[in-house]
Amino acid sequence: MKRFVRWAFLLVGLSCWSGWLGELPAAERRLRVATFQSEVTLPVGHWLYRRPLETVETPLLAKGIVLECDGQRYVLCAVDWCTLRNSAHRMFQARLADAVGTDPSRVAVHCVHQHTAPSVDADAQKLLQDTEKPLQRIDLAFLDEVTKRLAEAAKQAVDKLEPFNQVGLGTARVDRVASIRRLRAEDGSALMFGLQRLTQTRLLWLPVGLFGLAGVLLLI
């Protein structure tokens, strides 16, 4: 979320105050925002890491915002996948850009990177298909469908753009969320690093984390 907020500040700031669009009086600048989301869950039976997907506990989503400054649009999108690589990533950018009427360079697509979600590389899949024993790690037809559905959601968001004039920041405590951490004892020695299993009771009772930064756009 912290990175997401930084992107928002960067894109809006550059477009409105860096001179990309020329010097405009503050009273003439117009900022608008809209949100969108679309489901990106793999279908049951699709390959997921070591075996086919059997059940879906929680649907995976792609969520984003469309930012507009003086008619120029930018897209920030976070996908509930582990990774999104090469041409698959560019496909997301291109289709979102086309949907909102902007350039792909103004579209930022990031993954949440949870390890129970797909890791998608369309180029690697094409190489696998050319082998003697083709393997399917991502259904390219599914990828095509997902990106079209997401683009349509972004396109509809453009009709719902609302003006805003403030960006609010807040904090929240991270509670019971697994992560890669370096835990140290009072003498400075390392108790745990990386993905070691929590087999020691004393590690389980250590503080769970720091405060996370959250952001929200305040509408007017």
Please sum up the structure shown.
With 220 residues, the protein is of the alpha+beta class.
Protein described:
Helices cover 28% and strands 32% of the residues. It is flat and about 55 Å long. By secondary structure, it is of the alpha+beta class. It has helices at 2-17, 86-100, 122-129, 140-158, 201-204, and strands at 31-39, 47-48, 51-52, 61-69, 72-79, 83-85, 107-111, 119-121, 162-173, 181-184, 190-194, 211-219. It folds into two domains: 2-167, no CATH class; 170-219, no CATH class. It has a six-stranded mixed β-sheet, with helices on both faces. The protein contains five helices and twelve strands.
Helix and strand topology:
Blueprint: H1 2-17, E1 31-39, E2 47-48, E3 51-52, E4 61-69, E5 72-79, E6 83-85, H2 86-100, E7 107-111, E8 119-121, H3 122-129, H4 140-158, E9 162-173, E10 181-184, E11 190-194, H5 201-204, E12 211-219
Parallel strand pairs: 5-7, 6-8
Antiparallel strand pairs: 1-4, 1-9, 2-3, 4-5, 9-12, 10-11
Helix pairs in contact: 2-4
Give me some keywords for this one.
alpha+beta, 5 helices, 220 residues
Q: How much helix, percentage-wise, in residues?
A: 25-40%
The biggest beta sheet is recorded as: 6 strands, mixed
Distance between the termini: 23 Å
Shape: flat
Show unreliable segments.
14-24, 209-220
Give, in order, the helices and strands.
HEEEEEEHEEHHEEEHE
- Strand residues, percent: 25-35%
Q: How many DSSP helices?
A: 5
Radius of gyration: 21 Å
- The whole-number mean of residue pLDDT values reads 79
- The SS-based structural class is alpha+beta
Instruction: Return the domain count.
Output: 2
Annotation, overall tally of beta strands: 12
- Record the strand order, biggest sheet: 7-5-4-1-9-12
